[in-house]
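Q: Please design a sequence for this.
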């Protein structure tokens, strides 16, 4: 996966200080932050950044195809900068930790024509649910 900031530079996307800090916050492996979490981290680097600016920047990044919106169970939408390769997600049902995973057999997963109801399939999204090691060690709520 190439770095989001570098991908945006290559596209010639105008990198204002606000856009730059949002892209910097979305850096790394297994990054799946809510807009509010992006805002909190961005404010540490650029205190004057508004939540509206974060939402607008994320919306633009999604429309460019540089960030994907992920809905995984309860809670807010999250934003995934890992759009370069096929992957699915693994979520902890207790703490909502979210990881990228590459399952085996994904290529064989298909929907028979009679179950497609006339739809043209574009892709497959699978959400694996479980309990992470930290939550397994902690008492259930």
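A: Design:
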């Amino acid at each position: 996966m190439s770095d989001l900031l570098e991908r945006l530079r290559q596209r010639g996307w105008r990198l204002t200080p606000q856009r730059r800090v949002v892209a910097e916050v979305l850096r790394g492996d297994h990054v799946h932050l809510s807009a509010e979490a992006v805002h909190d981290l961005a404010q540490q680097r650029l205190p004057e950044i508004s939540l509206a600016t974060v939402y607008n920047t994320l919306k633009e990044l999604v429309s460019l195809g540089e960030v994907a919106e992920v809905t995984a169970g309860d809670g807010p939408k999250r934003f995934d900068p890992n759009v370069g390769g096929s992957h699915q997600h693994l979520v902890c049902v207790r703490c909502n930790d979210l990881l990228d995973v590459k399952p085996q057999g994904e290529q064989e997963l298909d929907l028979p024509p009679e179950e497609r109801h006339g739809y043209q399939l574009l892709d497959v999204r699978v959400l694996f649910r479980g309990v992470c090691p930290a939550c397994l060690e902690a008492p259930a709520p």
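Q: Thanks. Anything notable?
A: The beta strands are 68-70, 78-80, 88-92, 98-101, 127-130. The chain has a mean pLDDT of 90.
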